[in-house]
Design brief:
Layout: H1 3-14, H2 20-26, H3 31-43, H4 56-59, E1 63-71, H5 76-87, E2 92-97, E3 104-110, H6 113-124, E4 130-137
Antiparallel strand pairs: 1-3, 1-4, 2-3
């Protein structure tokens, strides 16, 4: 991947609905080479999909929660069980394996505190093997972008 490919990716991250003509103009290419590069990025699995950015409050999910989870044990069967169960929970948008004092960081979206409590009691607790759950509620967002920074 070269710098021109990265320019195409950043332009698409800023406006995924740009036409090939618009994209080519943004990255200083003629349309044919631009489309060829775009198809190679898609076929090569670099571009994995396109999606709409939606206002969570307008959608009905005003509460974002980051949840740090620490497991009791790190045996393969415990980790595999936890990860399988987390993948099945639709309120979990992201689950990251972490270094530090927590094993996982989850990003969860819910409609309110009552829904969050139900999620913890009936979604997370039944998984088992969890030593601790620590939640942080988002009350404001300073910056949110889907555009990658330039590579140094």
């Amino acid at each position: 991947m070269d710098e021109k490919d990265r320019q195409i990716i950043r332009a698409l991250q800023s406006n995924g609905r740009a036409t090939n003509l618009e994209l080519a103009a943004l990255v200083n290419l003629s349309p044919s080479p631009c489309l060829r590069r775009l198809r190679m990025l898609e076929d090569g699995g670099v571009i994995t999909g396109y999606r709409a950015q939606v206002d969570p409050k307008a959608y009905g999910l005003p509460l974002t929660v980051f949840i740090r989870v620490r497991l009791e044990r790190h045996a393969k069967e415990v980790v595999d069980h936890f990860e399988k169960r987390i993948r099945a929970l639709d309120k979990v948008l992201e689950c990251h394996l972490m270094t530090g004092s927590s094993d996982y960081l989850l990003r969860v979206m819910v409609s309110g505190l009552d829904t969050y409590e139900d999620f913890i009691r009936n979604g997370i607790h039944p998984i088992g093997g969890i030593a601790s759950i620590d939640s942080s509620f988002v009350y404001g967002t300073v910056k949110s972008t889907g555009v990658f920074p330039p590579v140094d």
